[in-house]
User: Fold this.
Amino acid sequence: MSSMLKIQDLHASVEDKTILKGINLEVKAGEVHAIMGPNGSGKSTLASVIAGKEDYEVEKGEIVLEGENIDELAAEERAHKGIFLSFQYPVEIPGVTVTNFMKTAINETRKAQGQEEMPANQMLKLIREKSELLEIDRRFLSRSLNEGFSGGEKKRNEIFQMAMLEPKLAILDETDSGLDIDALRIVANGVNKLKNKDNATIVITHYQRLLDYIVPDYVHVLYNGRIVKSGGKELAHELEEKGYDWIKEEVNA
Amino acid sequence: MELKEKLLSSFLAFENQVNVDSYVHDVRSEAIKTFEDKGFPNKKDEAWKYTSLNKVLKEDYSVFAKDAEALDYKDVKQYFIHDIDSYKIVFIDGKYSSHLSETTHDGMDVCLMSAALTKPKYHVVIKNYFNKVAKDESLSALNTAFSREGAFIHIPKNKLAEKPIQIIHFSTGNESALMLQPRNLIIVDENSHVQIIERHQSLTDNAILTNSVTEIFANKRAIVDYYKVQNDKQTSSLIDNTYINQKDQSHVSVHTFAFGGKLTRNNLNFYQNGERIDSTMKGITIIGDKQHVDHNTLVHHIEPNCESHQDYKGIFGDSSTGVFNGKVVVEKEAQKTNAFQANNNILISDKATINTKPQLEIFADDVKCSHGCTIGQLDESAMFYLRSRGIPEKEAKALLMYAFANNVLESVKIPELKKRINKLIANKLGVNIGFDL
Assistant:
């Protein structure tokens, strides 16, 4: 299988504080990787750095997507190459409807890829199809983006966007937080349906709960800016049972 | 010769062209004296502290334009809201263009000020309304002194003007610099309703200074929706003086879309002479370069149980400057007044400036008055969110700016106009994305 994402010795800081201290990670097409770890270990930072958030400075190391170094690319260029970040805290944008937002995102991506804008009827069909997948009410689509959405609606909307954009690499940052069990099932079901042999998913989570629904091929434990342990899906269960203290002890020993 | 001197001597020439033995001319003669006394406003006047007319007044304006050649409709079609049926009152270099206009006397008057000021059948109306709400501020007085042409609209009782009315002023550059002083009078009688769109458009790079006065009388239960589209050339300046007199239960809204020109000053004054009146002022300002837009509003709450709503959004780029000065006066008798004012601004350049000043003078004790001004930048986390979805920086900024301003558009009642404003906004922000889904 071909390499989708390869991260080598990645060091990143924000406001002169180093958060990532040498991350190594390889994700191949068709795989699901889970990244777990205690609060403050750098999970969300890793997600933001891969997606190209400018507040973070990459001090060292590299991020390679399908053989191409993307360190210098802007967030939108990374999106055009197929990276998608499902936000832990999706931003509320009053005045921009979900539909208009999606239409702009898709057409700007197509423009960047040298394609024509998507015809309106095709766009509507796609929106209908994908909103059904996420069990999203049609009225919801004409509301302002994330404004007044419940926690569950925000996360469902994130996965709806993912379904619309069909990324090669999806990073789900704490997508399970704030979800009740029904919403969790809908979201996980959506993610699973979008999975295929040509794309890859990184699931960032504090708890093992989501991993019952989106079953990972690999589990990594991030602690203090490094991946300190990797294993199969059974590692997630071990963490659920024993918590993170034993990992901390192992590392600090 | 200084412009003031030139105008004063031009008044003598003007008197040779109009009937001086008339009520109207008595009003003009008073007005020219007022202007002579007061002169042009300068920065020492509190209301003009942040807007200097010096540069604009330096040009050697012609006060009387030569007759311009007729314009072809197809060449100026883009400045009309052309996809709707409407009445049109069109002027070229200050003179009426019958060719581009569509007026009416059928059940209501949508016609010319020159007719209203001179024809005997309008004498009573003119005596009752002309210059009755405009104040004797220097620029308004100057306009009054030279008042001769403009739009005259009279909607009688219980009448719904079924088509919007467009008032458009073109300037052609026939003169190297031209000063225009249109005078509009709009009377909407009891239970009547009218929608008006006003635009000033220069077709030349020659200097244009427009000093316009519009008087609006909304009688009992009248509804007036007025839209000002200001998207002119960098060589054109506009001083808009609008005075609105409202009677019981009337609703008047004025939307001002200030997308540029060299200098734009909007003096918008509402006087609530009745109860249960609603006055609405909304504006979107989007400017760049060295453009200057100044919104100077006044709502005078005189009687009880009335409302006023002000919502102005501004986006300032490059070295542009903006001013918002919103004055709300609540008289002692005006109990249960509900006055709301908001002015929110985004500066997208380090060199852009906005001066915003709410001014509340409240003499009643049982009122609700709120005001808020904000000046900010675009939200970084929202920018990252949009960009992470593949929307490039420029388009993401545009989308956020549109989102910031667009609630002002919600109250625009003419869908075609709303569409046009959406396009103008996309154009101003330099992007080709549809905002109107």
About this structure: The domain at 32-47+74-252 of chain A is CATH 3.40.50.300 (Rossmann fold). Residues 125 and 241 of chain A are 45 Å apart (CA to CA).
